[in-house]
Amino acid sequence: xxxxxxxxxxxxxxxxxxxxxxxxxxxxxxxxxxxxxxxxxxxxxxxxxxxxxxxxxxxxxxxxxxxxxxxxxxxxxxxxxxxxxxxxxxxxxxxxxxxxxxxxxxxxxxxxxxxxxxxxxxxxxxxxxxxxxxxxxxxxxxxxxxxxxxxxxxxxxxxxxxxxxxxxxxxxxxxxxxxxxxxxxxxxxxxxxxxxxxxxxxxxxxxxxxxxxxxxxxxxxxxxxxxxxxxxxxxxxxxxxxxxxxxxxxxxxxxxxxxxxxxxxxxxxxxxxxxxxxxxxxxxxxxxxxxxxxxxxxxxxxxxxxxxxxxxxxxxxxxxxxxxxxxxxxxxxxxxxxxxxxxxx
Length: 345
Fold this sequence. Notes:
It contains ten helices and 14 strands.
């Protein structure tokens, strides 16, 4: 097959730990031809493993004519500037999340991609996450009825002191984990309307100056309410998912889910009674639940990011529609920006 030649900028947790690892599993589709990082040891490590060219200067890296697709996996505050430069050099681009640190910059990225005719996608990899896809499948089936509330939780207790705790680099949990959960939430919220937003952010245990506790509520007239919690100060972590519907619900984690439901026609017919209850009891009835359903992630699905790269290959080489468009991610950046403004006010 005609391999796509990739250049990766940033060989840290994401660039090395996710992108290099996943690309290595698709040797028939992709080839890492160049990398760029300021750390010489990281460059040497990449050169030894991939037999690729190395650069410690981003502008020199972009002059490499072998590169067809650039992966931007650098500090968050550099994403928009570096993406726009790469697009103008004729490269297709995968930009790590967050897409940008402002909606204005994100919109400029989309504009540049259209002007240059290059493909731009954002690494919202958790849109491919098996637990999210299963939750969405159950909701879309209608079996648990009209959705009243979706709680999405990422709880932890611990301090951080790396660059992602500093505002000047675009750090903080809202920019770090927020794009994952907000992107999933917006897929479940739907496109009927734009959500009303409540947001509370706190700096609790972090050694930096950015927030490490985030509470977001998305509310609409026709869409389900979505409650998002991302925190580093919860010593009693709850499960990642709780979905409440009018005929059932879902709960669980990123690796296992359970859900149950009933059929409304199995309930006895009743009518409202205004007279006193003869035995002073509360209204109680046995719900005819169907047998509880269970799902567990399969070993083959744990590296689900490969599906992102498989789909992108089809978009670049075979003109298939882009699965994660930058326009769809503008909604994520819009929510993040509104949360920052609400917190500041």
